[in-house]
Fold this sequence. Notes:
The protein is α+β, with helices and mostly antiparallel strands. The chain has 6 helices and 21 strands.
Amino acid sequence: MVNGLVRHTLSMALALVAALLMLVSPALAEGQIVPLPIDDTPGPVVNEAFYIDEAHYEDPSIQVSIEKHHWVKSDCYVARIKIADPSQLRTASAYGFDRKQVAAVLDMANRMNAVVAVNGDYCYYQLTTSTCYLVRQGVLYADLMAKGRDMLIIDDKGDFHILQACTQEKFAEFTQGMNIVNTFSFGPGLVVNGEQLAPDYYAQFNGSDGRHQRTAIAQVGKGKLEYVIAVSEGNHESYGGGLTLPEWSEFLMTLGVENAYNLDGGNSSALIFHNEKINAVSNQRHRKLSDIIYFASAYQE
C-alpha cells in the first residue's frame, strides 16, 4: 500500500513537471533535432522567438553569438557557432554551382533560412580560371586542382582539413577513405592544426601585404561541432584600416581555433545575422557572389 502510494505520488509529480514544461516552453517540449539532408535544400524556417537579442540566437540545435573586436587597424566581427549535427554546416549557390549567375549574399542567406551566413570562395571565378576542385553538399562539380594553393576540405563529421600547397597526388592520398561534403579553393590556411604559419608563407596569396577587408571560417577543434566566422573591416577610413594576411592569421589565433581558412575578402566580405549584413555597413559596393557558407537550424517543432 505504501509502495503504491509512493509510485502514485511520483507519477503525479512527473506529470506535473511535464505539464509545466509544456506551459513554459511548448516548442522545447514537443520539438526534436532532425539532421538535414546533404543537398541544396534550405534549412527549416527560423523561429524568430529564438533570437535572444541582436547578438545571440539559441535553439536546441544551434547557438550563435556575435562579438566585436579591434585588431591592429581594423574592427572585426566574430560569430561563434555551436551545432548539434554536422549537416547544419552548409553551402549554397546563387542559382546552381554549375551556373554563372551571382546574387547578393543577403538574398542567398534569406532564401536558405540561414541562422548565420558568410560569403564563400567565389567558386564561379575559381571555375572560370580552372583553379577549383569543387565539391558542394556532397556533389563533385569540378576536379580542376588548384596547384600550389591551400584547400579547405570539410568532411561528413563536420571536421576541417587544410591541405597546403595542394597537388593531385597529395589530394588523392590525403582524402583516401574520406567522405567529402564541401571543398574551398581560395586560401590560404591561416591556422593549420593549431599552428600559425610564418609571415613569409603568405607572400604568394591574395594581397598578403596590403590592408584589406578579410573573411575567414574556422573550427575550434576536430571532433567539436564548434566554429568561428570572422570578418575584418576594410581599408576605408570610416570602418577600419584593414588587415594584412599575417595580421589576420594572428587575430584568428587569438580566437582559440585549430584550423582557420581565408575566404574571399574585399567587397565580397559579408557576415549575415538575423537577416542583416552586420559588417561594413557604410560600404555601398557590395559585390554579388556565386556562393555562401551558412549554418541552419535542425530543430523541428
